[in-house]
Amino acid sequence: MDEILEVLSNDARITPAEIAKLTKRNVNDVKKAIKNYEKNGTIVKYKAIINQGMLKEEKERVRALIEVSILPQKDVGFDYISERIYSFPEVSSCYLVSGTYDLLVVVEGSSLQDVSEFISSKLAPMQNVRSTATHFLLKKYKEDGQIFKRSTQSKRLNISF
Predict the structure, then answer these.
(1) Is the separation of the CB atoms in 124 and 106 below 8 Å?
(2) Could you tell me which residues are beta bridge partners of residue 134?
(3) Which of 85, 134, 144, 157 fits a 20 to 30 Å CA distance from 17?
(4) Rounded to an integer, what distance in angstroms lies between the CA atom of residue 125 and that of residue 157?
């Protein structure tokens, strides 16, 4: 991977001037490279990783990983059904994976019931969906390489033998 992309993937807020220093390149070349990466779709989006657990005033959204087994269609394989699935607004990510299931779908909702309703009324009844297995995310320890630490100490007692 290009050094510019590596730097941006670790910190999207870093300036082109800082990237130029780190990579020993000309600032204008860095700006041009970034603009080209954005234009050709290599850089798709810049995002902040939010530790939702630190936002006490807001209710956390419920996330689930759903393994989906599908029957691929002739001439389009997994692409057609995958496109139909990732088009739902509840779906934040969709991956073709190896193993027992074909797709790994990340779904978000405001409650367990919302996510369950999505699965039972929209996802599972779809033509060519053979089965699903749902895993609700209970606690986030690390995301995109960033470790989340809680500001409060655990109230659990230490166990010693």
Answers:
(1) no
(2) 66
(3) 144
(4) 47
- Tell me what pLDDT residue 100 has: 95
In angstroms, the CA 101 to CA 117 distance is 21
Same domain, 9 and 75: no
Q: What residue ranges in 23-139 does DSSP mark as E strands?
A: 62-70, 91-96, 103-109, 129-136
% pLDDT > 90, the chain: 68
Buried b or exposed e, range 27-58, using 16+ CB within 10 angstroms: eeebbebbeebeeeeebeeeeeeeeeeeeeee
Question: From the centroid of its chain, how far is CA 160?
Answer: 39
75, 130: one domain: yes
User: In the structure, what pLDDT confidence band is assigned to residue 145 with cuts at 50, 70 and 90?
Assistant: confident
Residue 27 has pLDDT above 80, yes or no: yes
Q: What does the buried/exposed string (b/e) look like for 79-101 if buried means 16 or more CB atoms within 10 Å of the residue's CB?
A: eebbeebeeeebbeebeeeeeeb
Quick one: pLDDT band at residue 152, thresholds 50, 70, 90? low
Question: Which structural domain range is residue 137 located in?
Answer: 56-143
